[in-house]
Amino acid sequence: MTTYKIELQGEVLKIGFGEAAQNDQIVRDAAARLAEMSNSGELSGGRLIKINGPTSIPVACVLAHKVSHLYGAVGVFDPKLGKYVIAITHNPEYNLGDLVD
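The chain above was modelled as a monomer; its predicted structure follows.
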């Protein structure tokens, strides 16, 4: 069963809901997929990752926790702005609230 879809396309983590489920199951599935991607080397870290797609708050927390340990900065897509907003940063290249394409 795939209740949450996560795919890395370049520096963008494309995310979205799959089969219908409650957040407890979706959180476990998202965490398992992230672990799979990390263990395979697909999600290996770097200076910046951008996240784009629908999520719930519990799943957003799982995503943020995992990728913030691997990447220097995390940008989240804001459709109103049409840009990624830097929401987590340990990289001096990026400040919180910076907008990136």
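Residues 4-100 form one domain.
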